Amino acid sequence: MNQVSLIRTLARSRAFPDRPRKVRLVQTHLSYVFLTPTRVYKIKKSVDLGFADFSTLARRRRYCRVEVEVNRRLAPRVYLGIEPVVLVAGRPVVGGRGRAVEYAVVMRRLPDTRLLSRRLRRGPGDYPLVARVAERLARFYGQVKLGPGDRDTGAGPLARVVRDNFRVLEKFSGDLFDAEALAALKGWSEHELAAMRRRIEQRAREGRSVEGHGDLHLAHIYVNNEIEILDGTEFSRRFRAGDYAKDVAFLAMDLEARDRHDLSRHLVRILARRLRDPDLPRLLPFYKAYRALVRAKVNALLTGEREVPIEARRAGARGARRYFKLAERITRWRGAPALIVMGGLTGVGKTALALDVARRYGVEWVATDVARKLLAGLDPFLSARAGIGRGLYSPAHRRATLRAVLREARSLLRSGRPVILDGTFQRREDRAAVRRLARRECAEIRFLWCEAPLDVVRRRFRKRAEGPSFSDADWKVYLAMRKRQEPPVEIPLSEITFLDTTCASPVLWRRIDALLAPLASPPSR
What we know:
It is built from 18 helices and 15 strands. The protein is an alpha/beta fold and about 525 residues long. A six-stranded antiparallel sheet has the order 1-2-3-6-4-5, with helices on both faces. A five-stranded parallel sheet has the order 12-13-11-14-15, sandwiched between helices. Helix 6 packs across helix 10, helix 8 (about 245-255) packs antiparallel against helix 9 (about 260-275) and helix 13 crosses helix 14.
């Protein structure tokens, strides 16, 4: 019985130890996954994709054992062991006695409601969830450190893994991926690898290398009383070993792929502090682009498997293109470091626009509304409303918030990354501090000053009151701020552009693209 026939028979029979009434089969590019109400059974596909070779039964058995060993580090209660698949009266049975014809990794099934991707709701609780994941990872990386001489650490092994990834991607060039864009990404990666080589080797000597997870994205993280992280890479130690920045970048990238730049920054901020690694944010653009291309490859491979249902193949194609475009955005910035200041009164739509610019151009987003609450140890979605000039909005806390966002922006600019500062910047002295930062860091600076009519702002505040928001401001705060604002008349016209956020979207984006085009390559259409 060949493997495909065996899988079809298993999917139709009650061949599992827990005797389920129903079995659901899900396929990845490397595994057949059987889901019962209480268990998960994973059988490795008989494939050799170059980077993963499961072409013989002995190899599949070996990698089943490695999978359990690797994943018990972050999910010890989930990975129960491996079971043979044997033939009984000519029919396959999981866990029976006899000559094994396959092997299955057996896992406890966790409820999908515990997936981190489902738990993130753009509201109170998102930041604490990500903080808990970051703390779990920080402890894990402290336990799995590798020596500087380990064969799978350093710039050489990393370069081989990155190039192997491009070799697979190139098989889909012209079909799923634009050939010219893929070549540009490959050239950018080679340039970054060469520029980072000394830093990578130095970090290995400093003890920043670990045997990490290797496939750390949202769909593998479950959150409840404990953080359980599943599906670490078993088929290649090179894929999971190296600088922990590879792992951190994977999760940060996947958060950004879901439009959660705020949580990506929060994750990196916590890990940089817990690991005493201020250099971490500077490394992430390269690693995030690499990890986005890994996800593009994984999705692309699904499209070529005829036994995979057509809808899953179509979803794979969509996912491949989406992650490829994310890699393009991450690598888009091409010139000197740039500081984009999204300013204007509260309620005029600047944060929504700032996040859209961050997504479209691959810019690092730093917001005063978020920094203000994090400084006070609060979830940024929780209300900290106070009287004007009091509490978190007192002059002292305002100055501390400004110092925090400028510190963060400086760190990112020094790594050559563009930054978008999102805040009201209503005081002349605050704008002067931002401009001084740009001069010190030799960064291009552009103020995008957002405006909107009164009736539009009032409607936006009504809508804001219906759900969680980073901002605590309301209509009364807006009116008070409007009275005491200090218009940005001191900023040279070459540095500032006024934007009406109520303009039709194509018109608004043509203006923004024209302003940023001298600094970055144009977005993909």
